[in-house]
Automatic annotation (TrEMBL):
Superkingdom of the organism of origin: Bacteria
Positions of transmembrane segments: 41-60
Job of this protein: Component of the F(0) channel, it forms part of the peripheral stalk, linking F(1) to F(0). The b'-subunit is a diverged and duplicated form of b found in plants and photosynthetic bacteria. F(1)F(0) ATP synthase produces ATP from ADP in the presence of a proton or sodium gradient. F-type ATPases consist of two structural domains, F(1) containing the extramembraneous catalytic core and F(0) containing the membrane proton channel, linked together by a central stalk and a peripheral stalk. During catalysis, ATP synthesis in the catalytic domain of F(1) is coupled via a rotary mechanism of the central stalk subunits to proton translocation.
UniProt keyword list: ATP synthesis, Cell membrane, CF(0), Coiled coil, Hydrogen ion transport, Ion transport, Membrane, Transmembrane, Transmembrane helix, Transport
Protein name from the UniProt record: ATP synthase subunit b
Gene, per the UniProt record: atpF
GO terms, molecular function: proton-transporting ATP synthase activity, rotational mechanism; proton-transporting ATPase activity, rotational mechanism
NCBIfam families assigned to the protein according to its UniProt record, in alphabetical order: PRK09174.1
Coiled-coil stretches noted in the UniProt entry, renumbered to this chain: 78-149
Length: 190
């Protein structure tokens, strides 16, 4: 077995090397002492080699496997998110298309209802106008009869009144035919 001389010195009896230990106690720190340099390099290479083997054969493959698992999971989640995004976009497009169709159907229904109502209103208006025209013609006829009757009465009243006025002013009685002729000549009715 390859041991450092510093370790060998400590194993030996302290009496034999008491002088040398005293010299080392006063001198250099043992890891920095060049007399043990070969032993330090040997153990450094062995420890570094063991650490390298442990890291390269055990730790790095485990970390690499974990990284691969995570990368695969991230890729899978990304693909799933892309699929869901495409499904969402197609659902939105479908919803927009159906909403547009529903709006156009609603507009068509509203337009046909409005046209139907407008037709009924026009029909009712025409009926009402016809009834009003008929009632207006009947009313005008009645007014004409009443006016003619009133004018006839006015003429008679005017004849009677004119005969009485002439009688009171002049004192002579006027015949009904003379009073009628006088009122007709003044009123312009023949």
């Amino acid at each position: 077995m390859f041991l450092s001389s510093a370790f060998a010195q400590t194993v030996e009896t302290p009496v034999e090397h008491a002088g040398e230990a005293a010299q080392h106690a006063k001198g250099v720190f043992p890891p920095f002492d060049f007399s043990y340099y070969e032993s330090h390099i040997f153990w450094l290479i062995i420890c570094f080699g063991l650490f390298y083997i442990i890291i390269s054969r055990i730790i790095v493959p485990r970390i690499g496997g974990t990284i691969e698992i995570r990368r695969d999971r991230i890729a899978s989640d990304h693909d799933k998110a892309e699929r869901m995004n495409m499904e969402r976009e197609s659902a939105i497009a479908s919803y927009e298309r159906e909403l547009s169709e529903a709006r156009s159907r609603a507009i068509a229904i509203a337009q046909s209802s409005a046209d139907e109502i407008r037709g009924k209103i026009d029909e009712e208006r025409k009926k009402s106008e016809a009834e009003l025209d008929k009632k207006l013609a009947e009313s005008e006829e009645r007014i004409k009869k009443i006016r003619d009757g009133a004018m006839g009465n006015v003429n008679k009243i005017a004849e009677t009144t004119a005969a009485e006025i002439v009688e009171q002013l002049i004192g002579t009685k006027v015949s009904a035919s003379q009073a009628t002729a006088a009122v007709k000549s003044v009123s312009g009715v023949e």
